[in-house]
Amino acid sequence: MVTQVASRSGYLTAFRVVATLNTLSVLVQAVTAGQLMSGVSTGLHGTGAFAVHALGLAQLVVAVLLWRPGRDAGWPALVSLAALLLGFVQSAMGGSGVLSVHVPLGMSLFGLSVWLLVWAWRR
Asked: What is the pLDDT of residues 48-94, one digit of tens each?
């Protein structure tokens, strides 16, 4: 149940927007990763990593606002923090060329992003 504070303050709407953008950015990373396998330049994939990190941070901030002043559930903030940290580790593994870790972490990041997106829009 969405609290009156969360619904009136716009925190839930902000979380929905940021969660949607974040999930789309992770999806774009998956697409550009597939293009890398076919020999396309790595520039777009590297630039997309910045978007994933920036949107992950924005999602964490909005999730905390939804939780504390908004009086909504706290677990999305914890999952957003885990996704942000996972994104940094996943990016480092990709930059180091450890694809055997980079790819599964990317899939996990996508799963967490979709989980938060579905939660936000089912409220």
From this structure: 999 999 999 999 999 999 999 999 999 999 999 999 999 999 999 99
Residue whose structure tokens are 């939804």: 66
Q: With 0-12 CB in 10 A as exposed, 13-18 as middle and 19+ as buried, what is 4?
A: exposed
Please identify which residue in the block is written with the tokens 């597939």: 34
Q: Where on the phi/psi map is residue 13: left (φ > 0), alpha (ψ -120 to 50), or beta? A: alpha
Written as six digits, the tokens of 51 are 């978007």
User: What integer pLDDT is reported at residue 112 of this predicted model?
Assistant: 97
What 3-state DSSP class applies to 95?
A: helix
Contact 70, 9 (CB under 8 A): yes
3-state secondary structure of 87: helix
pLDDT above 80: residue 4: no
Rounded to 5 degrees, φ, ψ at 30 are -65, -40
